[in-house]
Amino acid sequence: MSATLAIARRELLAYMLSPAGYIVTALFLFFTSLVYFVVAPLAQMGFSQGRPASLRLFFQIGVWVLFVIGPAISMRTISEELRLGTLESLLTAPITEAQIILGKFFGSLGFLVLMLLPTVLFVFALERYGRPDYGELLCGYLGLLLIGAALLASGMLISTLTSSQVLAYIATIFFWLILLLATMALPFLASQAEGLAGRPGNSATLETMLEWLQATARFLAPANPGARVFDFVNGLVDSFNIVYFVSLTILFLVAAIRALGARRWP
Amino acid sequence: MIVARDLSKRFGKVLAVDSINFRIRPGRVVGFLGPNGAGKTTTIRMIAGFLPPSAGTVTVDSVDVARRSRAARRRIGYLPESTPLYGEMRVGAYLTFRARLFGIERPGRRAAIEKALDRCRLTDVRRRPIHQLSRGYRQRVGLAAALLHEPPVLILDEPTVGLDPSQIREVRRLIRELAGRHTILLSTHILPEAERTCDEIIMISRGRIRAQGTIDELRGAAARHGRLVLETDSADGERAIRALPGAERVETASLEGGWRRLAIGSDETAGDLREMIAQLAAQRGFAVRELRREAPALEELFLHLVLAEDERGSAGEEGP
Lengths: 266, 320
Hints:
The complex is a heterodimer.
Chain A: H1 2-17, H2 19-42, H3 56-74, H4 76-84, H5 86-91, H6 97-116, H7 120-129, H8 134-159, H9 165-193, H10 204-220, H11 225-233, H12 239-264
Chain B: E1 2-11, E2 14-24, E3 29-33, H1 40-48, E4 55-60, E5 63-64, H2 69-74, E6 76-79, H3 91-101, H4 106-119, H5 135-147, E7 153-157, H6 165-178, E8 183-188, H7 191-197, E9 200-205, E10 208-214, H8 215-224, E11 227-232, H9 235-242, E12 247-254, E13 260-266, H10 273-284, E14 288-294, H11 298-316
Helix pairs in contact in B: 3-4, 4-5, 5-6, 8-11
């Protein structure tokens, strides 16, 4: 436990001592607040008069910015240790791979929380001009945190596989892009093809293919991370969504522990 | 303290370490000596628990490194090659981090860190970020981190590589100071380095142990591979000497007045070559102006073992 905590603290410290940590935070805050406070009000959305005192738009932007920035936080976790050779002194200390991975995960999650912390100012702004619904706000933050955790865990798994941070970043982005596409495009295709099934003159092969398409779409549609997180953004706490992100995170963490162990015991 | 039995490591088709056996007694400073690529780092990594052996076992303090890895790692202080450190951390913070990894808890932690700082003469740089330090200091930070938990065994991979002469002297002095309290295994490719710091040397080349023993034992072995120097003016005599059993690698140099100097690499398992040459000179009646044995250096033995192996290797198999 103490070793896990030590690694988490060192990880958090490394973010705070590196310019990259500040750049990532600045980018996140800049883009989300630019849209929420400047661009959206031009179209009478976001932070503007007559609109509900809600951060919903901020959370929506935040999710997409996290997709870009989350992998940038996680890319260095193991890749950097591989490049510097410090992984060797970490793996020869009397600690388990799980302690290393969990320590680094909680360290990077801590950094994510620090990054979100300044946006509490947005809540003060809402409080100044209206009556925000705190349930909805908490729910939105929970959503950001849950998808953030899944993003960081997946990025860490990928960073155990390469000493190149750039490669780890690109591969993580790619992974989520494919997940988003597969879970959005296939169900869309299936809905378009719905009318085709059962028509006279359809060959047996076509019927089977359509059946398969519907089945995969039914299976994949609920796995759409975008849809799962936007329930939170809209103030809906669905236990399915929580289970979805938590189990995804655990899956990635366990895989990362195994991947790190495989380096030692090939 | 450290016992390796038939230890092997294979990377794909390359056999990096080929069933080596050694036993390191407690309190000794032992040098792993060999050219680059000999398998030193691979062997060290297997002992430190970073790489699993392909075959064979290593035990540290009677604990099997592969089977009870964490217990073994707790008994080892390991400084990897090129001293990897987190540059952005301060020296004190880094040592605190390492102490936590090794489970050194609060009451004794500060004292342990102070002691390590003091032993490695780092007290005046404890607040400096590591990336600002010179290589010599970084090496000492790595060393301090390795001995924080007072391990019975210290393993140092090329601890003096890349340092300037005064830094080398400093690190060497530090190792000698630590010698009483820890069993130390260090690797180096520089023979005088090993001669000066170590009690025992294990010579390793192409993944095999070529020679091992105390410095004196190895010097004794080197004497058998020593060189004789003699000067003669008789071509006939030279031919006879070359034909003697045990005279190998004869090098000649012409001197003025028809004299020639012969340097003979002697393998004296057949007997003392000097006596045989004296006898020969008396029988055949040729003049010998000088006959002496050159002080045999360990370097000779080292080169002999490594070169001989290289020749055999390149003749028999394809190089890596």
